[in-house]
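Notes from the 1:1 (GR / supervisor)

We went over the backlog. Supervisor wanted to see one worked example end to end before approving the batch request, so GR pasted a single chain during the call. The sequence is below; no edits were made to it. Supervisor asked that the structure be written out right there so they could see what the output format looks like.
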Amino acid sequence: MSYLTQDQIDAYHRDGFLMLPGFATDGDCAALMAQAGRLVDGFDAGAHASIFSTVDQQKTSDDYFTSSGNQIRFFFEEEAFDQAGRLRQEKHLSINKIGHAMHDRDPVFDRFSRDARLGAITRDIGMEKPLLMQSMYIFKQPRIGGEVVCHQDSTFLYTDPMSVVGLWFAVQDATLDNGCMWALPGGHKDGLKKCFNRTDTGGVGMEVLDASPWPDCTPENGYVPLEAKRGTLILLHGLLPHLSGPNRSDHSRHAYTIHVVDGACDYPASNWLQRPTHDPARGFA
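Structure output shown during the call:
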């Protein structure tokens, strides 16, 4: 059964994104927020201090990050620590995100992620065998919420042919003040610029395919803000250039995102995110 109209499908393929306000209920969002809080409660911040950065993920990647493909792991904001390595504020206000297999390892996120409507949506836009490959709960903390530089999701989850789609949910209102996303409509038609791969030595590295920079993020250059009320679902094409600025406001911008790939496509072993053979990525059913 289809979920999207033909006009919505056409808009997604034309622009590289589609906004679906009111997809999730306030109750859904409250449940995700509460469960994320419980997960952080149980995290020993003294045991791991892995930092997430889209500015230089190669520099901040470690075994804790690269082995997280089928686990629930916690990653701090870059500005969470002082020069002595101590948290500047309490743990709940210092986490950048939780990832990368919440959809498989947590019952609350599993139920939300495997909503039958999401399976219908991914098939509507052309997926033959949609598989949930990655999930993240993103906090965008007040005052220290880090910048997410302009990127394409296919840089981090590559398939041949390219198939990844992001399902991004506004768990709280995303506004210009608290670091909503910006996107370049139609930019998904210009090809892939980078690949974030595992290296032969066991680390990770960024392969540059096209060194030309993205245009500066201004309305004059065609970018549009994706302000989203709580409960909105935004579909993001894997090649769509998108970004978000830092959050310097007093209000967090919680979001939950799932990245889906088409199991009918090749998923190379060079991808940084790998699932063990005994625990492969699964679909919506």
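Supervisor's comment: Confidence is low (pLDDT under 50) at residues 55-60.
Batch request approved.
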